[in-house]
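Practice problem. Given the sequence and the SMILES for magnesium ion, write out the predicted structure.
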Amino acid sequence: MTERAAVTAESVYKVFGQGAHAVHALENVSLSIQQGEFFTLLGPSGCGKTTLLRLIAGFEMPSGGHILLDGQDVTDLPPNKRPVNTVFQSYALFPHLSVRQNVGFALKMQGRPKAEIDGRTEQMMALVKLESMADRKVAQLSGGQQQRVALARALAPQPKVLLLDEPLSALDLKLRKEMQVELKRLQTETGITFVFVTHDQEEALTMSDRIGVMSAGKLQQVASPRDIYTAPVNRFVANFIGETNLLPVTAAKGGYQLGCGVIVSADGNGSTLSIRPEQIRVADSKAKGAIEARVTNLVYFGTDVHAHLELGDGAKMVARLPLPPGGDTGLMRGSNICVDFVPGAARLIGE
Amino acid sequence: MSRAEDQQKKASARNGWLLSAPALALLIFAAAGPLLIMVAYSFMVKGDYGNVKWGFSWDGWVGILFERDIFDGTLRLASAHLVIFLRSVKLSLLTTIIVFGFGFPTAWFIATRNPRARAIWLFLITIPFWTNLLVRTFAIGEILRTEGLINTLLLRLGIIDAPLQMLYNEGAVLVGMAYVYLPLMVLPLFAAIEQFDMKLLEAAYDLYASRFKVLWHVILPIVRPGIIAGSILVFVPSLGAYVTPRVLGGGKNMMIGNFIELQFGQGRNWPLGAALSMTLLVIVSIALLFYVRAINRGAKGGGHG
Ligand SMILES: Nc1ncnc2c1ncn2[C@@H]1O[C@H](COP(=O)(O)OP(=O)(O)OP(=O)(O)O)[C@@H](O)[C@H]1O
Ligand SMILES: [Mg+2]
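Answer key:
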């Protein structure tokens, strides 16, 4: 953690309502986002992502704790005094203004000279490739185009931090993929710190420098996409990011013992073992750590097959096995096979 | 086009006419008819005891701005008439502005309540419509007059020594008209504000607008159709107001409506009365024209930059 993070949250709490109806939207959230970082807040609906974003923007005041921007405490500043801009989920474009006027709005409000407003507005519209639509009303644009206007409008005043609340959720899949690439390009080109909210884990994994996983108002883990995926710290993160198999284990000599008696090696600490489906492979029955299992179901996915397995103690697992060129794994429903874990793949996690 | 299609089209056109027939009949007899009679009267000769005599004359129209000297028959500018016109326009404009000043926060307040509270507030706003206008106007007179509510209260509290003269002046007319026409401003404003996307406030605030700039650059331009509709709904009837200036303004603060009534009553100058009515109609039409143009400009946009 450097001295001057772009955004810092210090033990932030947010409670809506009072008494029996109080909603604890954020509980003791501490976070530090670096300059120029593409940071994603990821979590299920209602976990407090929007609330945290609104606290950073200044639309809500924290019930406790502090928000710092660029090392400066802004907890008491209103949104129009914070060097932060927001791209709203619903875009919130001004319907009475043209594309150009929307993009230039912030600069005009700041009272910048006209030449500067015009120049920067042109530049921003070029950045999001909307020059040809500059004089249209925003109602005459498609969803993707409106999205670009919202981006250009928020980037025009050159904020220190850009906040994006599920900006892509209203777009169809193809457009969403395009915009993901586009957003990443914009972030690299402008060097502005992006704080991006999503509940789509794939989006988070492909775009972010770091991800903060949230659940029920608490920050569960902050790490790079790779670490989040390979080394989740708890059951929630392991389950939420990708698919995983969770098996109870007990410490034993030479490793950890599964319910069926097999002893395997694993990193981390905790009493639950997490193993990703693609890190389970068919093994020779005599190999060390081989686990006997019965195939209860087989589901084909084109490039691979999902084998639903039942272990000796009744525990269940799913293994994702690559299909050989012939397209036949030789597995059959009801047959007994042996599997093992890719070395180093199994992780122990806490609750 | 096939035969069947053709027939269907004819039938639907015929049905359209049939359906609109009652409305058309009503318009012709109830609106266009009296209007034509008014136009005709304004060009006739005035009768000695009211009414009109057959024959063509410009006197009614000339009488709007000029009066004829009783002795030598020369024309002079009738400054008293001009004063009445100007007072009518001035009081109507002021009423519109005052009503907007009170109506906008009211409409905003109602539109931002939850749906149930909204219905109750709207209901409360329309309650004055349930009572007769004359009764309500007299009630305001009761409050304002020398021995009225306000004066009694102020005297009792020792704030004033002698009662204030609040009745029978332009101020009293303004108070009365503002009270009567407030709902006509609040309802269209409410309709416009209800459609307003409150997220835009946050967006503008986020993009460095001060609270005043949010109002000026975002709220007012977007709810402009409501502002214009409300202003027209208040301005037009204010201009022709009759009861309020009569009861609260006394005889000295006449407006066009009272002036017209005078011509058909004591004045016994029906052609002038008819010509005055037509003049009022023209002023209102100009106001409406302005309204339509303003709306179109809003729709085409570009005005703001
Ligand atoms: N203004 C408010 N008043 C009361 N409760 C609120 C308010 N705003 C949010 N909440 C509550 O706070 C919790 C967190 O809400 P938040 O909008 O931050 O969730 P989110 O993670 O953004 O969810 P989603 O993915 O659905 O947008 C929810 O339980 C929500 O009901
Ligand atoms: Mg949200």
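Check your answer against the key. Residues 3-42 of chain B form the longest helix (40 residues).
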